[in-house]
Design a protein that fits this description.
single chain, 451 residues, alpha/beta, Rossmann fold, GMP Synthetase, Chain A, domain 3, 4-stranded antiparallel β-sheet, 12 helices, 28% helix, 29% strand, globular
Length: 451
């Protein structure tokens, strides 16, 4: 952790945040971290306690995050504004202290569950080793969100080998998400400028890219498809953009090719990681290929019955509110990601076990069906998932966003015509619904269910 603060000092004159409401340097960040360390002492926040940061992603929350890490606390970042989500994370994280940072509010409070966390074996281990920690939550798309605890110092130290660069990153994912935290730590280690959008819609993001000459955009395939549909990339000057990284869900090859066609001057690089194991260093075969290869000495992988298993130096200690059944005794994490293997060590992520649709014993991957549907000229976006059926167990259903008005009957007819020679009959959607937009989370990741 000390090495990172030394970099803040070395980069003190460089821009850290450039946005509509903030322009801060790394020197400002270092001073704010030091000020918050004093504030923690003033408010009797004890070392090794579990502390929640409830607030928007901004200069102050970032500085507080690192002040807490320096204070050897276990940090629970919460960016949600939904009361029920905040309450759930505070309860499941067994938080000792709550620090709320909103535009009109800065408040320190002791949790009613104070000291419950000290009995947890993972917290006790970090305390005994005098280390800081991090609690992140899963998306909860397949059940209640899981609270997982990281050794924060090990996570931060994995970025120490980064070299300084003069770039501007647009920070798209929040820092209560492993992908967003990876972008933040990567940026800080290299001393680059970051731009934090107030809104995450395509038009505003493209506006910020033009205004602040953003070079790197981390995003999700869903967001990139929405960007293409909005035509926002044609309304702004995106010539400063050098790299788009994408992850969190499978990238349809059709969408990838469309992004490259729309932005031919931009390199496209897939990223991969899990909340449980951290983000791995990987390489994409090319900007038009969704094949990846692991190039990370701190990561091991193997394929077991088409499922990707990972083991890393940055993986979690364990779950606070769930069993560790997805971990083997020798430390392998069963990701639930289904992969295909190719030559030269390349892999393709094709979907998740939890998303598989079972039609009378025959398995269907939603991503496979979506990759065909999105090729139909009148379809702008789609989402494929399952619905219970008394005869086959499940059927394939789809939400469809169309480019022009068409009846459900005519759309279903067109889907069957297009898919009959491209998909097995049982994979063709048996039920469709025309919607204004597909379901996706605030992290722009598809949510596979009906509204």
């Amino acid at each position: 952790m000390n090495w990172l603060l030394k970099r803040f000092e070395a980069y003190s004159g460089k821009t850290f945040i450039c946005s509509e409401s903030d322009h801060k340097t790394y020197g400002d960040l270092l001073k704010q971290v030091q000020d918050y360390k004093d504030t923690l002492v003033d408010h009797a926040v004890q070392r090794n306690s579990v502390v929640a940061i409830v607030g928007d992603y901004c200069f102050e929350t970032i500085a507080l995050f690192f002040a807490l890490a320096e204070h050897k606390c276990i940090v629970v970042p919460i960016t949600s504004t939904a009361d029920n989500e905040v309450k759930y994370r505070l309860e499941e994280g067994k938080v000792d202290h709550i620090i709320t940072l909103r535009p009109t509010e800065v408040a320190f409070a002791q949790s009613s569950r104070s000291n419950e966390s000290s009995n947890n074996k993972y917290v006790l281990k970090l305390t005994q080793e005098n280390k800081s920690g991090l609690i992140l939550f899963s998306s909860g798309s397949s059940g209640k969100p899981k609270a997982m605890i990281h050794d924060l110092e090990t996570l931060i130290n994995s970025f120490e080998d980064r070299k300084g660069k003069n770039l501007n990153f647009l920070v798209f994912l929040m820092f209560d998400h492993i992908g967003g935290l990876n972008t933040l730590l990567n940026s800080l280690a290299m001393g680059v400028a970051i731009t934090i959008p107030k809104e995450r819609d395509p038009e505003h993001v493209c506006f910020l890219i033009e205004k602040y000459k953003v070079n790197v955009l981390p995003a999700s395939p869903t967001f990139l498809n929405l960007l293409l549909l909005s035509q926002a990339h044609t309304k702004f000057d995106l010539s400063s953009l050098k790299l788009i990284t994408y992850g969190t869900e499978p990238m349809p090859e059709t969408v990838l090719l469309k992004v490259k066609e729309a932005l031919p001057f931009v390199k496209l690089l897939q990223t991969f990681g899990t909340s449980e194991t951290g983000i791995a260093k990987i390489s994409s075969k090319s900007s038009t290929s969704n094949l990846i290869r692991f190039d990370d000495p701190d990561y091991e992988f193997k394929i077991v019955n088409q499922e990707l298993w990972l083991r890393s130096k940055t993986q979690i200690s364990g779950y606070l509110n769930a069993s560790n059944q997805n971990f083997t005794e020798d430390g392998w994490f069963m990701t639930g990601d289904i992969v295909e293997e190719y030559e030269d060590g390349y892999l393709r992520i094709i979907g998740r076990n939890s998303d598989l649709i079972n039609v009378g014993g025959l398995k269907v991957l939603p991503s496979e069906v979506e990759s065909i549907l999105i090729q139909i000229p009148l379809i702008a976006d789609c989402m494929v998932f399952s619905e219970s059926n008394p005869i086959t167990g499940q059927i394939v259903v789809a939400q469809i966003v169309t480019k022009s008005e068409i009846s459900s009957k005519e759309l279903k007819k067109e889907i069957h015509r297009f898919c009959k020679n491209r998909l097995d009959q049982y994979k063709i959607p048996a039920k469709i619904k025309i919607v204004d937009e597909a379901n996706y989370s605030n992290r722009y990741k598809k949510i596979r269910r009906w509204d």
